[in-house]
Amino acid sequence: MLQVNPDTVCRLIELAQSFHVREPASIPEEGSNAADDWTQQMLADHADNTSYDEFKSIIKDLDADHQQEVVALLWLGRGDYTLEEWDSVVKQAKEQWSPETAEYLIDHPLLADELREGLELHGYTCEEFVAKPPY
Q1: What is the DSSP string of 20-47?
Q2: pLDDT digit string (tens) for 119-131?
Q3: Is the pLDDT of residue 114 over 50?
Q4: 33: which of 41, 42, 49, 120 is 20 to 30 A away, CA to CA?
């Protein structure tokens, strides 16, 4: 049974989408140093992106058990496991947990889709958490 708040996961999905849709900065072919060029690309691409900061803040605010469930949702949604294996997936996430959970998660370019799929396998959709107009 899913313990992490699905609404929180939906917000993480939104932030991951926002973070991953950014277009990479182009680097001229002529570079002085490949390592320096990579650093410039990362700074150019993400310097003003607050999505990652909010994503990281939400993950860090979750207790370790809930962070582990978000990782397990990623693995479930990616197709590494089935819903019937949920308890063992969470156990594996617990064994592999580290304080760098936010970084681990955001490094997956398909994170939003995989979290969404994991939630759906648990019977949740993000649409049910979207605020509806009062009419």
Answers
A1: HTSPPPP--S--S-HHHHHHHHHHHHHT
A2: 999 999 998 655 4
A3: yes
A4: 49
